[in-house]
Amino acid sequence: MRQAGRYMPEYRKLREQHSILDLCHTPELAAQVTLQPVERLGVDAAILFADILLPFEPLGLGLSFAAGEGPHIANPVTRQAEVERLPTVDPEADLGYVLDAVRLARAALPADVPLIGFAGAPFTLASYAIEGGSTRTFTRTKTLMYQAPDTWHLLLGKLADLVGRYVVAQARAGAQALQLFDSWVGCLSPADYRTYVLPHSRRALALAAEAGVPIIHFGTGTAPFLEDFAGAGGDVIGVDWRVSLDEAWRRIGDAHAVQGNLDPAALLAPAAERDRQVKDILARAAGRPGHIFNLGHGVLPETAVAAVRAVVELVHGG
Ligand code: CP3
What is the pLDDT at residue 1? Predict the structure, then answer.
């Protein structure tokens, strides 16, 4: 994820003229950015250029991105009545520009490079909808979860339904795999994950499975409850660097493929250290089928393109 982005000069150049939302809203530009990492890095798959927060626009939450401050949600939801009033989003009608970007990107990509569509998982989306932006502590999110569990479950249920239908629409438009991002779910205890999140992730992933394409269930900080996280669904489980790949795979089980798990900061290390970490991950995967080499989280803006290319080449056996 965040395969495209500010570390790439060609992305920064487009960003001089267009806001991130402009890029997302304009299918030709979104498709162009989707192709940039494939051309520049030689990666095996493309991830659609979009953002997990785009469904907040048709939900009426008011989405903007302030330079250097991340996302801003103008109308956060915290009350039962606000959650009840959330409209039902029709992906074809309300997020048609994303589906158009899928179609254009698919048509422009080489036939042997699959296109991955994606959405946010219910918890990670809810955290932005409740907090109104990024947070370190998830205070408002957890307050709502504990103080108003009925409102919480209503909200997560609505988001699960939305993202499930949204990714199915992406697959119909040409996405050949789908990824659900639960980027911040690691802020929860194992017990709270099970009670407040797992049923909704399971529902979103079950809906997504109707698309009939492989589903990647990604999270960070999930090591304390990896069995439950994998049990929620997905054919591929995305893990970060806080757990070693062999241990993660043992706990997830052989029925799943595993994606991961280089620390994005390793791309800032001297080449010898970076390569050592890449080889360590490959050794822990031990040639088992179903390992997707990836970073445990997005490429950091400070990263040199040459470092990313070097990792791709090393993984490809160069
Ligand atoms: O190649 C790709 O992966 C690009 C497509 C993509 C973007 N966002 C574009 C984007 C994807 C897959 C995402 C997912 C996303 N967005 C997640 C889940 C994955 C993760 O990284 O955890 C989350 C939590 C978001 C929400 C979001 N969008 C935040 C918190 C920010 C600000 C980050 C920052 O560093 O400023 C964004 C903005 C955003 N979305 C950028 C990109 C490339 C960064 C920048 C920009 O051009 O200003």
Answer: 54
> How would you class 15 by CB atoms within 10 Å of its CB: exposed for 0-12, middle for 13-18, buried for 19 or more?
middle
Q: Is the distance from the beta carbon of residue 258 to the nearest atom of ligand 1 less than 6 Å?
A: no
Number of residues that make up the chain: 318
Average per-residue pLDDT in the chain? 97
Average pLDDT over residues 284-306: 96
In angstroms, the CA 179 to CA 217 distance is 6
Q: Tens digit of pLDDT for each residue in 163-172?
A: 999 999 999 9
161, two tokens: 């339904």
What is the 209 CA–ligand 1 centroid distance (Å)? 24
Q: Is the distance from CB of 152 to CB of 102 less than 8 angstroms? A: no
pTM of the model: 0.97
Q: For 181-210, write each residue's pLDDT tens digit.
A: 999 999 999 999 999 999 999 999 999 999
C-alpha 167 – ligand 1 centre gap (Å): 17
CB of residue 296 inside a 6 A radius of ligand 1: no
Q: What's the whole-number mean pLDDT along residues 263-279? A: 98
Q: Indicate which residue's Cα is closest to atom 28 of ligand 1.
A: 51
Cα–Cα distance, 225 to 205 (Å, whole number): 17
How far apart CA 45 and CA 113 sit, in angstroms, is 5
Give the closest residue to 116 by CA, choosing from 127, 105, 124, 126.
Answer: 105
Report how far residue 159's alpha carbon sits from residue 171's, in angstroms, rounded to the nearest whole number.
18
Which secondary-structure segment (H or E) carries 134?
A: none
Tokens 């010898």 belong to 272
Q: How close is the Cα of 294 to the center of ligand 1, in Å?
A: 16
Q: What is the pLDDT of residues 21-37, one digit of tens each?
A: 999 999 999 999 999 99
Residue to substitute in 3, 11, 51, 115 for testing ligand 1 pocket (most ligand atoms within 8 angstroms of CB): 51
